[in-house]
Amino acid sequence: MTRLLSGLVAGVCLGLLAGCGPAASEPVAASEPMPAAPPASAAAEPAAPVTVPASLKFTGKTLDGKAFDAATMAGKPTILWFWAPWCATCASEAMSIADLQQEYAGRLNILGIAGLGNNKDMHEFVADLEVGAVPHLDDEPGKLWKKFGITQQSTYVILDRAGKIVTTDYLDDLQLTTKVKSLVA
Q: Which residues contact 2 (CB under 8 A, 6 or more apart)?
């Protein structure tokens, strides 16, 4: 009786699963062995270490005074956004920066480098314009501005994946977005 009931249940299940198992005319194996897991050597190998280009060999302090090493950005396209807290043009760019950060998170680095102002005003700029998802460095002394030859705010320094500088200039929103799309593609 148990055999008859088992056969009936198997037949009903096969009918319900149509196409998900063996055809009704094929015998149903009592237990199919599970495929073996791939050998450990077939697992994805860790990514090779990324070479840090000269353009990302710098350190700084965040607006909150924490150490920041730009080497952590190696291997991805990067936007260095040089801004000042009193700059109206910089304020108008903040929404584009926030949007790019959200859209390309994980595929693009963005780093704000604030200068020509004090730390309190830099904090207010970031809070008021809602660009806190982007890390920002306090470069009040101008060390990084000098390193990159920046003489005025608002300037973008855009690096490709290899760290090669592809743009050092003011860009409007459309130009910036177009440049980012070509680098991240």
A: none
Backbone φ, ψ for residue 38 (5° rounding): -60, 145
- Rounded CA gap, 13 and 133, in Å? 52
Rounded Cα distance between 91 and 129, Å, is 7
19-63 pLDDT per residue, tens:
333 333 444 444 444 334 444 444 455 566 778 999 999 999 999
Percentage helix, strand, coil, to 5, in the chain? 35, 15, 45
The whole-angstrom separation of Cα 115 and Cα 98 is 19
First to last CA, the chain: 64
Distance CA 21, CA 70 (A): 54
Please indicate, yes or no, whether the overall pTM of this predicted structure exceeds 0.90: no
CB 108 within 8 A of CB 79: yes
Q: What is the pLDDT of residue 14?
A: 36
Rounded to whole angstroms, the Cα distance separating 83 from 85 reads: 7
- Distance (Å, whole) CA 31 – CA 76: 49
Segments in the chain below pLDDT 50 = 1-43
